Amino acid sequence: MKYTDFYEPAAERYTRMQYRYCGKSGLRLPAMAFGLWHNFTISSSYENCRRLILGAFDLGINHFDLANNYGPVPGTSEKIFGEILKADLSEHRDELVISTKAGYDMWEGPYGTGGSKKYLIASLDQSLRRMGLDYVDIFYHHRPDPETPMEETAEALEQIVRQGKALYVGISNYSPKQTAQMEGILRDKGLHCLIHQLRFSMLDQENLPAIREAERLSIGTIAFCPLAQGLLTDKYLNGIPEDSRAAGHSRFFGKEQITEEALARVRALNDLAGQRGQSLAQMALAWNLGRNTSVILGASRSEQLQENVRALDNLDFTEEETARIEEILK
Ligand SMILES: NC(=O)c1ccc[n+]([C@@H]2O[C@H](COP(=O)([O-])OP(=O)(O)OC[C@H]3O[C@@H](n4cnc5c(N)ncnc54)[C@H](OP(=O)(O)O)[C@@H]3O)[C@@H](O)[C@H]2O)c1
């Protein structure tokens, strides 16, 4: 794929993707979103970032997931995204769902982290400036903050929606109990919690209870790290490639996570994926989409996105395949 100076989106972009209602809302999200947690840093190549974003859009991935602190340095991925948006996608703003978040450490001092109204309102204003936007489609509280009354966080989310700075609000990394609490507070204010974003993959099912609770409350769910940061692909089966996330480019994923025990599971899953006519990445995403509204893909190259969207060609699992997966993951 080569993008010349003038970008024209692929005409067939909406024919390949599935769009699913998010919880009880009228918003349909693509089954696959693209996340900018990695690979949008101060040392990233702008041309590669552009290929990733435009390549995603061409595949029908019209939901982009950001956060105030994505970088490094924090704020960089929003800045790069804003530049690409302005240069190539400004005419397509209404085709896009753009999400950002605040909750983790962003700036120094007491107001740059947590769940206070002071932090969330200021942070979203900064995010909008960095991206050159009037509003985001989804604003998330990035993680629960036990030091801030949940009513205050909810008040901030309410203000953000009432001021038109976000169309919808969501939560991330909340426990089932915290989810029900926040949903109740927002409901009393006449707002709906659109979505819960949580870590979930074949290798990490800790958040299954939170997914079930969200479903019970008609909140959509979107899974992050659906490929366990690359472990659920065939890339680590024969060592650690130089250009991989595990080779030291991330402080969140390293060689120590690629254990023999994990690899034994990955090998068995890879064999099963082959029998289904899929790559392991495709099978892992298909499995995840059976449990969530959507998944957020990360990628260092747009070819990975092209491979991953083909998971949609086979989302079904036979009883035997499901039993085999459960046995492998036991
Ligand atoms: N709410 C939260 O607290 C939170 C936390 C974490 C993430 N997130 C969101 O979730 C998004 C996705 O997270 P993630 O990047 O960890 O997702 P992931 O899908 O688990 O991992 C993505 C990485 O896997 C590798 N990969 C992807 N497709 C591949 C393929 N077909 N073959 C080989 N390798 C492949 C690439 O790594 P290489 O660099 O090795 O090529 C890619 O960067 C983030 O961008 C962010 O938006 C949210």
From TrEMBL:
The keyword Oxidoreductase applies. The lineage of its organism: Bacteria, Bacillati, Bacillota, Clostridia, Lachnospirales. The keyword Transmembrane helix does not apply. GO terms for biological process: methylglyoxal catabolic process. Keywords: NADP, Oxidoreductase. One of its GO terms (molecular function) is oxidoreductase activity. This is Aldo/keto reductase. Belongs to the shaker potassium channel beta subunit family. Signal peptide: none annotated. Pfam families: Aldo_ket_red (PF00248). Residues 32-329 form the NADP-dependent oxidoreductase domain. InterPro entries: K_chnl_volt-dep_bsu_KCNAB-rel, NAD(P)_OxRdtase_dom_sf, NADP_OxRdtase_dom. It comes from the Bacteria. It comes from Candidatus Limivivens intestinipullorum.
